[in-house]
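This protein record is not my work; I was only asked to verify it. Would you go through it and say whether the fold makes sense for this chain? Here is the record exactly as it was handed to me.
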Amino acid sequence: MGIAWMMLAIAAPTGANASAFDSAGYRIAHYRAPTRRAPEGVTRIAPEAAAMLRPGVDALFIDVTPVDPGAVGKPERMTIPGAHWFPDSGRGGIDPAVERWLIGGVTRLTAGRAAMPVIVFCLADCWMSWNAARRLHRAGYQPVWWLAEGSDGWRDLGLRLEPNRPERNRPQ
């Protein structure tokens, strides 16, 4: 099976609860809810297709899962090996410093190559990855691939997760 076959191009959401979105179209409430359609300009990628790619070589893997509110000390998360963690950068109504951190970090990690594929993920049924994928596409990154099943889908394939810490220079 080829990667292209396993990727699903899906249109932006329709019929969603309008109060869950801001005027710019980002989800701002109820982040843990089913996500069926990729944002406009973004392609959904299946976990099996993502697993065939080498992080940092074939694509840049970006994890946007928020920090566990119960975490004490330096936050850590089990994530896809080789992924870069930008916690909370998938929120709607994002703090401008967090948005600059995400986009600046992706620019640094891609060495400014906006054509390097970027795979954005969180957990299964997490709108934060949807928001972040949309944000990166709007910032000029193409292609942006959305791994809707997130690290949960990766783990469900029997693939390992590894501990990771947030990317450097995280805004407080």
Summary: The helical segments are 3-6, 47-50, 96-109, 127-138, 150-156. The CA atoms of residues 7 and 77 lie 26 Å apart. The first strand starts at residue 7 and ends at 8. The beta strands are 7-8, 43-45, 60-63, 77-79, 84-85, 118-121, 144-147, 162-164.
